[in-house]
Amino acid sequence: MGNSKTTAAVTSTGFIGRLASAAVDVNDDETTRLRKTLLLLASGLMNVAAIVWLLIYWWMGLKLPTSIPFGFQVLSALVVYIYLRTQNFEFFRFAQLALFLFFPFVVQWAIGSFVSSSGIALLALLAPIGAMVCYGPRESIPWFFAFVTLTVVSGFFDYYLASGEDYGIPMRTVAVFFVLNFTILSTMMWLLLRYFVQQRDSFQSELSRQHRLVEDERQKSDRLLNNVLPEHVATRLKHNSGTIADGFPDVSVMFADISGFTRLAEELTPKQVVAFLDEVFTRFDELVDKYSLDKIKTIGDAYMVAGGLVGDVSDYVDRTANMALDMIEISRNDPGLRRYGLELHVGIATGPIVAGVIGSKRFVYDLWGDTVNVAFRLTGEAPNGTITVDKTTYRRICQRYRFGDEREVKVKGKDVMSVYSLEGRL
Q1: Of 288, 295, 285, nearest in space to 230 by CA
Q2: What span, in angstroms and rounded, lies between the C-alpha atoms of 246 and 231?
């Protein structure tokens, strides 16, 4: 898309557009396209200037020979023709700049001197300036020295030559052509510079547009990544292509499960199932943001959250407990849950875990360890509409929350455990 847009900017409509279309190649980069177009444009302007220059001389009654201007036009046209047929830009660049350099001096020598030719040699400045654009600053140095050398040599011989009167050219005519030659040179320079600035601005505008598109796509990717992974994990993943795996000595893990949802899912349409879960889990997501916790994943109708994965949050056990209480409150008041007779039961455990990103496609951030298993098992031990926590969680927050009596449960894969029902805040 970027290349086609930029090519369109260079190959604008009109005569210049047709010239540019013939000069550039679809595989050229922006700089090469601009160099080719400018050199082709300069060639056309120089040929027009030669015709204007000769016609004005004739109009003023001076019958100068046509061989030099005509010879320049033939050679210039031949160079352009060869380039358009072969697309050999190296040849075109060197040959055309050489014509720009020598033609004005040849005309000056044919007329007589710098004064009698009205400073036409100044047009040779197109050669070093063109080399600056078409080659580069360093490569233009020989062209500039060639221009200076020809100027000095011409000046040396002019010192021993007579004025324009000796060659039959009145000084009034010399003055007119001084103005004409300076006007032609200035006009050509201005037109070329104007075209260069227009194309540069067009390139910059297109580059800015492409940059904005890239930035928009990057932001979309960031938002998508942050929706899939916790923000702190997504940030690391963007800057680290290696394995992301961490051990945490103390994390609160919570599972919340909608009791009776499996039965309900068999009665609802797929669209109704997804819409229902989306509504409920969206409210849970808002609680995750409210308490600065990390949503790990959803598994069917189960919702998994962790607190303590980010180092700057120290009261993560309290935050997890608060979110669990708010979730129970939502389940009691949510019209959808009440309409279908569904309830929430929650399990919380606190302890060491291992966290990391797995997979190269559709990767997922997950937690592993005994703490995770206990939290999941406690969800099943929690009666509907209640929160069951392990002893570690109870000890951390028992001074600030209300709990039911201690009870012992047999958890799969564990010995008998003491658990507590979290009932509210003190």
Answers
A1: 295
A2: 15
What is the residue whose two structure tokens read 């032609």?
184
Domains of the chain by residue range: 2-216, 232-425
**pLDDT of 179-236, one tens digit each?**
566 566 656 665 666 666 667 777 777 888 888 888 888 878 777 776 667 777 777 7
> In whole angstroms, what is the distance from residue 327 CA to residue 382 CA?
14
Rounded-to-5 percentages of helix, strand, coil across the chain = 60, 15, 20
Per CATH, the architecture of 232-425 is what? 2-Layer Sandwich (3.30)
9 Cβ contact list (under 8 Å, min separation 6):
199, 202, 203, 205, 206
Tokens of 272: 């109704």
Neighbours of 367 (CB within 10 A): 21
**24 vs 18: CA distance, rounded Å:** 10
Answer left, alpha or beta for residue 168, where phi above 0 means left and psi between -120 and 50 means alpha: left
Helix (H, G, I), strand (E, B) or coil at 314: coil
- In this predicted structure, what is the pLDDT of residue 286? 93
What's the CA dihedral at 196, 198, 201, 203 to 10 degrees?
A: -70
Residues 234 and 240: their CA atoms lie apart, in Å, by: 10
Per-chain mean pLDDT for the chain: 80
Predicted confidence at residue 164, as pLDDT, reads 44
What tokens appear for 233 in the block?
Answer: 């994990």
Give the integer Cα–Cα distance in Å for 160 and 263.
Answer: 112
Distances (CA, A) of 378 to 171, 349, 393: 109, 8, 12
Region 18-30 average pLDDT: 67
Contacts of the segment 161-164: beta carbons below 8 A, 24+ positions apart: 161/112, 161/113, 162/112, 162/113, 163/113, 163/115, 163/116, 164/111, 164/112, 164/113, 164/115, 164/116
At 347, list the tokens: 């399990």
Residue 276 sits at the vertex; the CA angle it makes with 377 and 355, to the nearest 5 degrees, is 40
**Sorting pLDDT into bands at 50, 70 and 90, what band is 8?**
very low
pLDDT above 80 (res 289): yes
Q: Which residue has the higher pLDDT, 191 or 281?
A: 281
pLDDT (0 to 100) of residue 169: 59
